[in-house]
Amino acid sequence: MTMTSATMPTTTLAGTDEALLASSALCRQITRRAARNFYHGLKLLPEPKRSRMYALYAYMRLLDDIADEDDGRSHDRRLADLAAWRELTSEVLESRLPEGTGPDIWPAFADLVHRHAIPLHIFESAIAGQRQDLVSTRFETFEQLREYCYRVAGVVGIASVYVWGYEGGQATLDLAIERGVAFQLTNILRDIQSDARGGRIYLPREDLDAAGVTDEQILQGRGGPKFVEMVRFQIARAEASYEKSADLENRISRDSRPTLGAMTEIYRGLLKKIAKDPECILRQRVSLSLLDKVLIASRAKRATWAR
């Protein structure tokens, strides 16, 4: 199998070896602390792919925190912080590493991007998605929601397959986008109550109206048959995205398939739990136990993949 993975020769773009090692260690700490689902899959990657995926996750995690973290910053301050993050990202990718500016993930991030030739527009789209979180909290249609999912999760899928190595060109990148959308649709269902309390309801208004479900009903945690029907519709939509992207595992490098398989099974496991009791998402944040996630990762590691 001929894999596409734009791996570059060693450069000085990521700074000294010492700085890169320290930066990579920080990215691992961030991922281990924050990636309660993805970390169990990422651990299955061989080095250096594992450390580079930690760098990707850390970048996206800190970007997400700029928009979402409840730390008392004003709306305008968050928008300004996003603009500063975008400028800093551009500077890093132009080989100008910052000195003493924010968390020092930048040497590892620069190493990741330059070694795998990940396009700048991937990160610009991710930043645009977080800005959208700040300027628009409702989507009228699923098409609008899907565009948001592309920005905050689909592009992460693209960046991931750049690291993993893949065959199939744009068709494979499209599958990576679809898997990212599936993950994000799962997140939206899982976090519906906490997001609503934070002033964000991501489900399309057209879907809520069609089901006869109101924003107030979600905010007040009131379920009922109409709510259950609406949730089952959203589950089916997310499952359709998982099915549409089912061939992705066969298109990435063999040593990366257990990682994608584990992450996907964990996320589909969340959907299964929600399907058993759709109203549970109004009461708590659905999760799998640590044992469940460890067992899923173990099965993925032992799995025999199709090709």
From TrEMBL:
Xref: InterPro entries: Isoprenoid_synthase_dom_sf, Squ/phyt_synthse, Squalene/phytoene_synthase_CS, Trans_IPPS_bact-type, Trans_IPPS_HH
PANTHER family per the UniProt record, alphabetical: BIFUNCTIONAL LYCOPENE CYCLASE/PHYTOENE SYNTHASE
GO biological process, one term: carotenoid biosynthetic process
GO molecular function, one term: squalene synthase [NAD(P)H] activity
Superkingdom of the source species: Bacteria
Protein name: Phytoene/squalene synthase family protein
Keyword entries, A-Z: Transferase
Lineage of source species: Bacteria, Pseudomonadati, Planctomycetota, Phycisphaerae, Tepidisphaerales
A Pfam family the protein falls into: SQS_PSY
Statement: the UniProt record of this protein carries the keyword Nucleotide-binding: no
